[in-house]
Amino acid sequence: QKSTNRMYKKINNSSLMSFGKLNRNKYFYIIKRSPGAGMFSNLTFVMNHLLIAHNHNLIPVIDMENFPTIYNEKKKINGTYNSWEYFFDPVSKYTLDQVYKSKNVFLTSNKFLSTFTHDIFDQKFKKIKNKIKFKNNLLKKINLFKNKNFKRKKILGIHYRGTSYKTSANHPMPPTKIQMKNLIENELKNKQYDKIFLATEDLEMFNFLKSIYKKKLIYLNNFRSKQDNAFKIYPRKKHRYILGEEIIIEGILLSQTDKFIFVQTNVSNFVRMMNNNIKTKIIDNGLNSKNEYFAKYYWFIKNLLPETLGGFKKNI
């Protein structure tokens, strides 16, 4: 027990806790993150902790019920308040009720540790990847969409992260409308794609590409807006849950396209985790300013300026 205690203190200065007398010879590792962040940021956080649990022979249990995330609903989804289990199967056979009556329990902090990797497709996660299992109802929806829209077709997959990515300090800057159109036209010219599968939360870019590519463009009828307000409003029943479902379905579908175009995000990392062999094109518009105030305007300034005066290139 002492060595296990020391092991945990080395990770994040937390100590072994006892909630009861059950399972005296077992050591549990409760993974929590509240309120957390986006779906694949949370998934990356969980996978880093699953690796710790695996390496130290601890039994992992994910608690996003007592420690809710931004995806949690007030009523049960799929029979649970634990938002992890809205979308994924449990990572072990033990319930939260059992664990919180057990003798040896570690509780993670919310902190994304400096030793963690942000790359969800990192090969070191191979040993715990089998712990990540999606709910059957999600997989059914994916297969329905795929059979209807992807079958016997060559698909160009695009993930466009707009809204807050235009103003986030030190983040990759998304492409402009002209860049996006030129990029797609170049891909269509070089390869004959039957359809373009677009995943985006940015309503402006969605409407722009839809007006050009019409029936060639396929997509899910997801929540989109002109600002980053998905978690600030509640426009539909089960909105938080549906947001999580939508991005997982989009991510898995993107991983099954013939070529994937993206700006570096947690979503693009997830897509490559799901399909390590997918053909890719990374959009590199450089990073936004490190200065948080100037970052709010930098993308818009570059979008207005001609290329000769420091504006974005027309072709990337």
Structural descriptors:
5-stranded parallel beta sheet; 10 helices; 316 residues; 3-stranded parallel beta sheet; alpha/beta
Describe the structure.
The chain is an alpha/beta fold. It is built from ten helices and eight strands. The chain has helices at residues 2-12, 39-55, 84-87, 96-99, 136-149, 177-190, 203-213, 239-254, 266-274, 292-304; strands at residues 28-31, 59-62, 105-107, 155-160, 195-200, 217-218, 259-262, 279-282. It has a five-stranded parallel sheet, sandwiched between helices. A three-stranded parallel sheet has the order 2-1-3, covered by helices on one side. Helix 7 (203-213) links the parallel strand 5 and strand 6 (217-218). Helix 5 (136-149) crosses helix 8 (239-254) and helix 8 packs across helix 9 (266-274). The termini are far apart. The relative contact order is 0.14.
